[in-house]
Amino acid sequence: MAEKDLSVVVFGATGVTGRRVAAYLSERAGETGASWAVAGRDPAKLERVLGEIGITAPETIVADVGDPASLASRARVVLDLVGPYTLYGEPVIAACVANGAHYADLTGEIPFVRRMIDAYHDRAVAAGVKVVQVSGFEALPPDLAVLLAAETARERWDEDLSEADLDITTQQPTGRLGLADLISGGTLQSLAEAVAGEGAAAVDDPAALIPDPELAAAVRRRSPIVLTPRFNARGDAITPMTPVAFINPAVIHRTAALLAAERGAKAEPLRYREGVAIPGGAATMPLRYVAAGALAAMQGGFRALSRARPSVRERSASALRRIFPSSGFGPSGTRLDEWSWQVAVDARTAAGHYVRVDVAADGHPGYLATAKMLGEVGLLLAEDGATPERAGCLTPATALGTAPLDRFERAGVRFSVSS
Ligand SMILES: NC(=O)c1ccc[n+]([C@@H]2O[C@H](COP(=O)([O-])OP(=O)(O)OC[C@H]3O[C@@H](n4cnc5c(N)ncnc54)[C@H](OP(=O)(O)O)[C@@H]3O)[C@@H](O)[C@H]2O)c1
Description:
Blueprint: E1 6-11, H1 18-32, E2 36-40, H2 43-52, E3 60-62, H3 69-72, E4 75-80, H4 85-99, E5 102-105, H5 110-127, E6 130-132, H6 140-157, E7 161-171, H7 179-182, H8 185-196, H9 213-222, E8 230-231, E9 237-239, H10 248-263, E10 271-278, H11 285-306, H12 310-323, E11 340-349, E12 354-362, H13 365-382, E13 392-394, H14 396-400, E14 413-417
Parallel strand pairs: 1-2, 1-4, 2-3, 4-5, 5-6, 6-13, 7-10
Antiparallel strand pairs: 7-11, 8-9, 9-10, 11-12, 12-14
The structure holds NADP nicotinamide-adenine-dinucleotide phosphate.
């Protein structure tokens, strides 16, 4: 990578999330000395959109998704914000692997991630390139938090984790929130593509990212994705993860599989459960259970659709593409700063030893914290020696390791081992 003249390029910097990655890098570049650029297909739109949020990028590269080599040849790291990834992601990954650039994206389209592993893992290993998918709110914080718990259990007792329960709590801005405050058109369109595309049945498979069939079967037996609401030890109602309950588990199980393979050990699948916590006292318990049930039913509908015949999936996806708002729709303004969220991981070893990891974060999880975290991932991947020596199609946790966790504090995301 010696001849690369840029540390990080943000591709898709006009998007709801991409513009905030650019904003984060414009602050961080001054602190780190990293050279960076924005890229997109429409230079006038790039200038206008970034101008609206007060950003001037040091350089603008004009590139369409059909021609990403111009980015990959110059950058040490390409941050890809051009979704839906099922439609647009592969040429960017191919160009990065061919041109020796690390790659990170925000996809949650698990069948697409599996296709990229099958097609590019070996080539990326040979090229010494890290391909790091699913690096946003899904699945970076859960993946790193579970890895931190696993490493803590190894250090303290030389034991592997046998189970991990992860709950997320969010605090939203006061006042009425509309759909645009919660989710972007880009994310909704990506959901439609995830059910429409090839291999959609893998959408809800916890072992979707594990190529070894024997290990994949063991993961499915030990840790199926259950949508039924439950209560945690603190009395919170736990609803399925939103917007989709099927993203983090596949990533977390791949992390465990990659690390076990690296140690030459047989992977013993983790029993992993996750969800969004609806806190409250005993009085509101029935109400919270009903709310949790409604959210679970929605996810159940998504699961059923992913298993339907291809013609049904394609018809439904084309209806969803029309109904859902399109690119550019999404959260904006200073209300994004008013969100905060927490992740708690309660993990146990087979011998019953307990570890708790907490993550406390500021900013809208999907579109502000995600953008800052991805920006920091770009800076870390660009720095020699900041991340483990691994290459291939990696998860956020295997690509980054826990050594640079304190770097995410700058992005408003703080990891700690609490007990
Ligand atoms: N996992 C997470 O936590 C998380 C969080 C946020 C977003 N995401 C994912 O990230 C992706 C982006 O989301 P978003 O809300 O930011 O989407 P968005 O607002 O629709 O932005 C999409 C970007 O892609 C660009 N683009 C589209 N087609 C292109 C082409 N042919 N060539 C070059 N650029 C092209 C658009 O450029 P133009 O402006 O020129 O159209 C825009 O910059 C989605 O897949 C979403 O699901 C994931």
